[in-house]
């Protein structure tokens, strides 16, 4: 397994990230050395907040039932007694004008239902992650996205919006998924109004980390270059 502690340090230092990247793994078996989550959370993205604070744990599908939309993106079927919650949630959002029926076809989903989901800070992940979530200011996410492009990971693609949790299956399919987030996620994860997400496929994180310092250095040099041109060429 890769040295994820080193990779986290390499990326966060090169790009000046203030938040720890979160590793998410969709596992067939519960890791023997990892504790099971106990308690309740209002949404699957709430687990991102807990992992970002340094917690290492795993969940089962039932831990995600409180968020019908998150269950949809994770291909988790709600139990019969709660199956109506998805329709109720969507009806509420449509009534508010938040979404339209045709928006549902644009939401990415996992290809299969995960049996267990492992969450951890990247540097402490006990298993190889499927997706690594980064959150930070747009300037930092710009650098990370450029590092991914330089590494040949992902392509120039549209930015995702609501729901934020679809960034996970989207990153698995595309390699990289940039997301502006959604209001529910911002409440549950407590990220700032000035922060965005970038999700990177776990198998590609090592390649992205290898390019982070080069991209950061190049951008610093280019910033000086553009400031010089601005001083020389701006007349007002």
Bulk shape:
globular
Biggest sheet character: 6 strands, antiparallel
The mean pLDDT is 93
Strand order of the largest sheet: 2-3-1-4-6-5
Radius of gyration: 19 Å
Low-pLDDT runs of 5+ residues are: none
CA-CA gap between termini:
55 Å
**Share in β-strands:** 5-15%
Count of alpha and pi helical runs: 8
| Percentage of residues in helical conformation | 40-55%
Helix/strand class: alpha+beta
Q: Any idea how many domains?
A: 1
The SSE string, one letter per element, is HEHEHHEEHHEHEH
The count of strands amounts to: 6
Protein model, in words:
This protein has helices at residues 4-15, 46-52, 68-73, 84-96, 138-150, 167-174, 183-189, 205-233, and strands at residues 22-27, 57-59, 116-121, 131-136, 176-179, 196-201. It is an alpha+beta fold. It has one domain. It has a six-stranded antiparallel sheet, with helices on both faces. The protein starts with a helix and ends with a helix. The model has no long low-confidence stretch (mean pLDDT 93).
């Amino acid at each position: 397994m890769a040295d994820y502690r080193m990779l986290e340090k390499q990326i966060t230092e090169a790009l000046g990230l203030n938040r720890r990247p979160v590793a998410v793994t969709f596992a067939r078996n519960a890791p023997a050395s990892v504790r099971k989550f106990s308690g309740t959370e209002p949404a699957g993205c709430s687990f991102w907040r807990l992992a970002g604070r340094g917690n290492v744990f795993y969940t089962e599908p039932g831990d995600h039932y409180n968020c019908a939309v998150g269950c949809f993106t994770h291909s988790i079927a709600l139990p019969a007694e709660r199956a109506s919650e998805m329709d109720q949630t969507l009806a509420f959002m449509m009534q508010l004008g938040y979404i339209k029926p045709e928006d549902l076809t644009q939401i990415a989903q996992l290809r299969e239902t995960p049996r267990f989901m492992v969450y951890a800070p990247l540097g402490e992940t006990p298993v190889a992650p499927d997706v690594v979530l980064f959150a930070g200011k747009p300037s930092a996410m710009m650098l990370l996205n450029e590092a991914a492009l330089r590494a040949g990971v992902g392509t120039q693609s549209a930015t995702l919006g609501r729901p934020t949790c679809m960034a996970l299956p989207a990153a698995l399919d595309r390699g990289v998924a940039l997301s502006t987030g959604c209001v529910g996620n911002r409440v549950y994860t407590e990220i700032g109004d000035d922060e965005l997400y970038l999700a990177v496929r776990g198998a590609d994180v090592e390649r992205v980390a290898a390019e982070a310092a080069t991209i950061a250095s190049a951008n610093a040099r280019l910033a000086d270059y553009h400031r010089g041109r601005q001083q020389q060429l701006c007349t007002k």
